Structure formats: C-alpha cells, structure tokens
Amino acid sequence: MKTEGRVYAKITPSVMKWARESANIPLDAAAEKFQITIERMKRWENGEERPTVSQMQNKVCKFYRRPLAVFYLPAPPKDFSPLKDFRRLPSAALGYFPTELIFLMREAEDKQTWLREYLTETDGHKLEFVGSAGLNQSPASVAAKIRKHIGLTLEMQKSWNGQRDAALRKLREMTEAIGIFVMQHGGGGKGKERLDVSDVRGFAISDEYAPLIFLNSNDSPAGRCFSLCHELTHLWLNSSGVSNLSWTSDTGNLPDEGRTEIFCNKVASHILVPEKAFEDIWNEDMTGNDLEENIASIARFLCVSEAVIARRLYDNSSISKSKFEELHHKYSMYRAKARPVSESGGPSFYTMKVFQNGKALIQTVIMAYHEGFAGSIDICGLLGVKTNHLNSLAIEAGLPGCV
C-alpha cells in the first residue's frame, strides 16, 4: 500500500502484537521507541493502521530483534520455548524475564540449535555425562566426577595464586574442552539494558550433542566461577533452566526448583572446594582466628569467593544457619559494590566477540564454513560480524585464519 510517497507495510497485526509481548515490552515503551502515541501503537496492533516499510526496517525490527519477514506471516509463529525458571523471586515476578534476558536467551537458543544440527549431521558424538547424575546422589560424589571429567586438580587451583580472573578463564577453557559451549554477556550497549545479577546469574541448555552454558558477565569473576560449576551440575542432571542462585536454605517445604537449585549449589561448592582439602586446610591452619579472616584466607588460597567457603562451613555444621545467612548477605553486598562498570577504551571488537561467544563456538562455526556446511551469510549472522571480520575473528579465537 502506498500513500503520498509512503510505502506502508502489509504486516499481520497479531504478529506485531506478539513480537512486543514475547519480549515483555510494555505498550508505552514501544510507542516511545517508535516515536508515536500509545493510541497509534494500539492501532498498529489491531490493524486499523499500518506502519511504513521504513518504520518497520529502521525501528520495529531493530527494537524487537525480529527479521522483517516474520511480520508478514499469517499468524504468530511458535517462538522459542522459555527455559525453566529456577530463580527464587517474589511470587509476582515468577516466570517474568527482563527484555534483554529474553533477547539473550533467544540468541543462545538459536546458536545452540545451529550447533546441534551441525554436530548431529557431521557425526558428532553424544556426551555421556549429560544426565548421568541424579538428586538422590551425594553432592560430593557428583562434584568429584565433574572435577575428574574436566581435569580440575587442587594443585591447579593453588597455581592460580588467588587470581580469580585466571581461574575463570581456565575453568571456561576446561569446560569447553569436554564439548560444552560457554557464552558470557551482560547486556548493555547502545539502548540496551544491563542484566541484573539478581535477575540471572546464568542458565544452561542441556543437550547430548551441544550443551550450552550462559554466564552473566556483570557478575564478579569468582561469582561466575561458581555459576559455571552450578550450571555444569544442571547439565549432569540434564536439567535446562535459568538460575539466580538465591536458594540458600534447604529447610522447609521446598518446591522442586528449590531442591534442584540447592543441590546444584552444593555440588558447585564441592567442585571448587573439595571436602577433604577444605577440612585439612581449615583444621590445620584456620583454628582460633577471626572467622571472617579465616574465610577470606582460604577463599584466596583456593581462588573462590568467600560465599563458597561460608556455604561449606554451613553444610558442615561449623556455623549456624543465621550466621551463614548473615555472611551470605554481607558477601552479596560486597559483590554488588565491586561489580565492574562499563568504561571507554575497553578490549577490541574481536576480543569481545570471543569473550561473549567463547572460542569453542567460534571455532566450530568457522570450521563448518570451511567444510561447506554453512555459507558466509549464515555464519556472519550467527556470530554478529561482517564477512571482512571473519579472518581476524578466527585468529583471535585461536584458528590460523585464512577464512
């Protein structure tokens, strides 16, 4: 339809409404972004008016992060399935995901689906550890199996010398080495919301061929180490879902989500702090001194957060529930204050792409391109880069280049 030089888009009104609601975007926020009135926004969604093709391409598609072709479908498509919500939130907020988190979950699921298709069609092997654990097993035994599988040793942890950034990089590398893809992102950027750690610390997409873990990069390095181990446990349980690690008490009438989260927390604690190692260090070197000084000392020694050590003391009945909750609150406040803020002059474009997607994902996608499995347009869309970026990105990800 064309009127006075303007070309109007013959989109499907119900799809327009679905695109907004599926991203949890309020009507007034969309209207403000598109620089129209709320009344006009309503008319776009009920079919009384149509946006122009220019408005669709330059505003609507970019804000809703949907391709233009979607809006011409006869009815709303079946969207990605939201991950199970394991978060502990006020009842009114249960099942509600912030818009930026929805976009990042959608992006992660798109990438995981592509990876699975590629690996299954190229004779990728099943990962036997997925679903190999159960809630009826002891957290310590599950943790020991995970430590062995990824190759984590106490000597390795000591060699990190309390450098939690180094610990996170190594744990991610070891996780990717066993076939798990690890993404990191904190939202933000031009016109985008930052992911709040209280909303999400991480999520896991469980799959026998292409399991994927996502970490909120707004969390501290020590916090992400714990989240990575927590999400590893979700994969061992074959349990996809979103976590904010807020379940701390294992008493009372817990829902299934709470029991699962507390189990994953306990396993994560044992992965980072093996039981015997902790007992030996604590009993030999940490008796008779100030509790919080002892916690800080052993946390530095094992390159973990103070909250992990406090959790272990509570699990071992060395401190009371009230003391643990007091310490947990204090360490959460410290973590929030120490959270990094965005600054100018940060890492390069290619470094950030590797940081966000992970070397394993980028290497797999570029190798698929070399094998003729996917074209340059497909892989550029998947990685969010232009064709002339591929060679530099390959080199940054540890490949020889020559894309």
Concise description?
This protein has helices at residues 13-21, 27-34, 38-46, 53-64, 99-121, 139-150, 154-159, 164-177, 221-236, 256-272, 275-285, 291-302, 306-315, 321-338, 349-357, 359-370, 376-383, 390-396, and strands at residues 2-3, 6-7, 181-185, 202-205, 212-216, 241-243.
Task: Explain this structure.
This protein has 403 residues and is mainly α. The protein has three domains: 2-72, 434 Repressor (Amino-terminal Domain); 91-338, no CATH class; 349-396, no CATH class. Helices cover 53% and strands 5% of the residues. The chain is built from 18 helices and six strands. The chain has a four-stranded mixed β-sheet, sandwiched between helices. Strands 1-2 form a two-stranded antiparallel ribbon. α2 packs across α3 (38-46) and α13 runs antiparallel to α14 (321-338). It starts with a strand and ends in a 7-residue tail after the last helix.
What structural class do the secondary elements suggest? Answer: mainly alpha
CA-atom Rg in angstroms: 23 Å
Note the gap between the termini: 43 Å
Q: How many domains would you count in the coordinates?
A: 3
Beta-strand content estimate: 5-15%
